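TL;DR need structure tokens for one chain.
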Amino acid sequence: MSAQAPSPQMSNPNNAKLAHGQRDHHRGLRLVALLEATKGVLALLAAFGFAEILIRHVDLEDAAENLLEVVHIDPERRIGHAVIEFAGRMMDADVATVLAIAFVYSSLRFIESYGLWRQRVWAEWLAIISGAIYLPFELYNLIRWPTAAHWIILLVNIGVVAYIAWVRWDEITGRRSRERTSKRFAENGD
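>> reply
TL;DR here they are.
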């Protein structure tokens, strides 16, 4: 008698927990968790890099002018003037405030990432709410400055919010369906 190879569904330990008709959102949630963790790391790196620049007393206006010269943008043009003005405002930033905001933001991203990795319902709701909060601002930025980067950021955020909302919907409707089936089984004995 020859042994049969296990089916792909049986070889995956996550599928053993699934009821009939229930979907496995394990991979999708982990992908979103990695995205959120990456955002947290990038926020910390940017904040510490910015703090290092401020601590070393780098003149950001001079750095902005040098950057504009390298990319061949006239500092007297509107975009050049805006870059230099923004760099000047950054010189007035408080290092402690920048680091505190980055720490809070990245902590939220790491907590959300942990919860999504472990498939926690609270993390799914947190992802929906925190992602949806940014949508109006991202849409505003896209309308005001329509660039490829703004399009990508908006579409990725819409995709994440829509996917997590679909996961919640799928789990809620799946649970209700299983409850109806078990209730019908208990009543009829079928």
